[in-house]
Amino acid sequence: MSEVVKEKITAVDTVTCTIDGQQITVPRGTSVFDAAGQIGIVIPAFCNHAKLKPVGACRMCYVEIEKMPKLQVSCATMATDGMVVSTNSQQVREGRKAVIEFTLINHPLDCPTCDKGGECDLQDLTFDHGYDDSRFGFDKMRFIEEEKRDTFDDLKIGPEIVLNRNRCILCYKCVRANKEAFGEYDIGAFERGDLTEINATPGGEVSNPFSGNLVEICPVGALTNSDWRYKIRVWLTKTVPSICNFSGSGTNITFYKEDHKNFVYRVTSRCNDAIDDGWLSDITRYGYQIVNSESRLKTPLIKKGGKQVKASWDEALAVIKKHMGQIKDQSGGVCIGGLISPSLDNASLYSFSKLFRTVFKSNNIDFRGDYRYLPSVTDSLFTIAASQPFSISDIEKSDVIITFGTDLIREHHNEYLKIRRAVNFYNSTVYSVNPYAVKTADIAKSEMVYSPGTDELVINGICLVAIEKKLVNSSAAAKLKSKISKLSPGVLAKLTGLSKEQFEELAEAISSAKKVTFIVGEIVARSLDRDKICAALSNLNKLFGVQDKGQLAVLSRYANSKGAQKLGLSATPYEIVKDELKKIWGEYPDCQPRNTDAMINLMKKEEIKGFITVGANPMRLYPDRSFASEGLEHVDFLVACDMFETETTELADVVLPLCSWAEYDGDYINLEGKVQTGKQAIKPKYESKAAFEIMELIARQLGAKLFENEQVKNEEIEKLLKLDSVLPWPDDFLKIEYEKKSSQDGYPVPLFICDDPHHSGHLTEKSPSLLNFSDSAYVELSKGLAAKIGVADGDPLRVESPVGKIVVPAKISPVLNSDVAIIPRNFSSTQTTSLLMRKKRVDSVKLTRVEE
Amino acid sequence: MKEILTALGRIFIRMPIGMLVVLKHLFKKPVTLDYPRKKKPMAPRFMGRQYLERYDDGSERCVSCGLCAAACPADCIYMEPAENEKGERYAKVFEINLLRCIFCGFCEEACPEEAIFMGHHYEFSADNRDSFIWTKEDMLVKHPRKDNPFKTLFRRVRKVYGVGEKKG
Ligand code: SF4
Ligand code: SF4
Ligand code: SF4
Ligand code: FES
């Protein structure tokens, strides 16, 4: 090839081809299938999936290409310049007919019993392209387990997945998605030829946190889930677009509902490329079951003589009026506080804020019930770091991705998948820097596990090494050096348990990257020293110019955390929000703002007498159970609104049933700051009401009115959402003091309390499907630690901290490799947070075997 | 005079002729039936109330696929599928509202399992609306079929010797 030609080829990165007589120009590397899709020509296909690499397994997508002797599969054929394609010629139609006929050779006539019936690609394509009759007279091949002959050949291959191998058309979508998108290997294809079958890996089951997707992408009814099994025919349901309520990313979902029964039947994805690529975590997919749960609170409850009894809304409101009115008149509104869940919609959050700030004239509100020592000033470094802009779709555009202090598969499933996609499809490099080994590490170029509690030192180490190696601008380097160079990189390496080379690797990666994504997660957010860590991050950001060539942010965890921040739901809202609120309301309470910690403290001192929780469960989630319970028990009058009976509602004087997010229209702001609407799927179940209605009712009881009408409310919220909510980093480099951590004698193992990969928060334990994956607390350990203690998988283990003790089974983690203990906080049966102490940066425990 | 003659003619000529017709019918087979003691045999393709068939081993044929309900122009079939202890799909609830049914037979035609048939039963008068909702229990054929022992014997004989069997 001459130089000139070569140059020309590299210069042209688009190709122009003709499909069915229409010319189209597409980027090089686009498949014929996608090119046709762009001009609205739909080519029938089974095995092609927009988010997976093509395999060409099903041959359904045949097209005729000029100058090629045979039909070609369009999904695996790249468009080239001057290609002339026809997608509907006689030859193509015959080819399709033949493919369908072959596909059906061994396909059972199961449609009447098959759950896929009505939304089955094979049904549809047979109808459109197949022969009317079969020409094969012989018996169909049947996969059968002799001892299970009676069970219709269905195999349960996972907690929620049922496989029928006879129906499988071997498109390999399930295996490919599992591998390429989720990085899981629990389903595979076995045997050869006629006997090829999909199955769970021998001895295992398909239980990864994304397994529900396999069912959704299976083009036939080979993979179905127990959740939807034999429940209803799909054509009898209606779909409603909504948003996931369990994660911060706001993945898009579709509810399938039935009006007569007022019942939600299932959730499927609603592919939004900018957010979720059409993949849902199982929490999102099965978490909806809490909406239908029988154990939901059905009516308001009032405490009478120490016992909660059923009451009507009027009675409950009258009690609230009496007591809250009394507290307000006698002690003042400042003696009333409130905590709301950041998973609720904008209207609810805003109504809550307005109720407190205009009716009670109190600043005692918060939305963060599960963090201790929250920042009590508006411009804390943590608040700044959490307000930074972030774009989910930029993850895959970054060539270097660093995950710092985050166990993504327990916190941000969607970002976890996005990072995998970035690596598998866009050749990004991932560095996983965490206090314990995490699942993300298998795609990371290198995984660095630092000792718990040394987060800011790691960042300092990176900065110092970068300065030493002259990887950064020298004037900035000099400035920073004077602030943080008390400890040399060598000492930092020793303190953090990393090596100087590792610091160097990270420094080089950040400085040489074209685009960086720096994700900071819950491990940092939950740390008491979060401000210090964020100061270090601020330095790093400034030194490397991370945000100039990418993004750095602490990701918000809950469905509407961003919204809560923007609407001023913390005791100390952003200044601009405060000013705007003053303008809208014409008033703003000037009493002292109190966040969750401060409020619980005041409850103990009996200075907060009335308390309202909405969807929040501080008793379970606040990271010091005894502190929270002491506080709440001292409250004179506690109103708790929730969907279920929780540890918090048990203490309440009045319990009000709350709607789920499927029962009203609501706007949610995801971690990118994008406002999305979740539509109402069903009418409120039982006597439940949405939080904004409840707030309005309480306000009216107290002789006030929150909003004249819906429109006023929306306008006010609109005004607040328009404000720019990104806080600027400090102008200068920050000094970071190093304090030697005193280690806890006798409690050697650092403890992390987080979410189970199949659960989120305190509500998902009401979903039966999610319980099938994981139904009780455990303590996750590395193999080495388990051997040291002498326990095997499943053995009961006593977990002791200076303040509490629980006994839970041990679970040996395939991922962990250092001495840490991880316990999920999602199960009411185990009071995990009783192990935590409010003043601890790193909680540590003692693990001992329970002798028989 | 003329009128008297006409009247006489009526009495003595016309009336006996009429009475003759009556007399003739006295000895003829009546067109009406002694309903409800006697019932009219229905044409083989008469479409009355639906019934649900069973397999020979007594298990229900209907798998609650919902196709009959989808085909039903009057939208009168309601069902709830469920899983039986063997893991098979069956109809936990199967109801037809006969006040709505127009007896078009589309359900029979749609059924892929040959489970639902239009029967010959047509007597569904009742004095309340609820009794027009026929449930699965009402429609499923009995198992074993409650038959006259002689009839069963005859059927066996017929089967063995192949006599008197209906075609088709
Ligand atoms: S996979 Fe599709 S074609 Fe096959 S039995 Fe199920 S519905 Fe019918
Ligand atoms: S189980 Fe479904 S997705 Fe997997 S190969 Fe078979 S048909 Fe394809
Ligand atoms: S069509 Fe037949 S098998 Fe399907 S639900 Fe109706 S009666 Fe049952
Ligand atoms: S879609 Fe192209 S071969 Fe399957």
Q: What would you note in describing this structure?
A:
Chain A is an alpha/beta fold and 852 residues long. Chain A has five domains: 2-88, Ubiquitin-like (UB roll) (Roll); 138-292, 2-Layer Sandwich (Alpha-Beta Plaits), CATH 3.30.70; 301-375 and 560-722, Rossmann fold (3-Layer(aba) Sandwich), CATH 3.40.50.740; 391-554, 3-Layer(aba) Sandwich (Dimethylsulfoxide Reductase, domain 2); 749-849, Barwin-like endoglucanases (Beta Barrel). Helix content of chain A is 32%, strand content 18%. In chain A, the strands form eight sheets. In chain A, strands 15-14-25-24-23-16-17 form a seven-stranded mixed β-sheet. In chain A, strand 1 (14-19) and strand 2 form a beta hairpin. The longest helix of chain A has 19 residues, at 313-331. Chain A is globular and about 85 Å long. Chain B is α+β, with helices and mostly antiparallel strands and 168 residues long. Chain B has helices at residues 2-26, 67-71, 106-110, 136-139, 149-161, and strands at residues 50-52, 77-83, 89-97, 116-118, 133-134. Chain B has five helices and five strands; from the N terminus they run H-E-H-E-E-H-E-E-H-H. In chain B, strand 2 (77-83) and strand 3 form a beta hairpin. Chains A and B meet through loops of A and strand 2 of B.
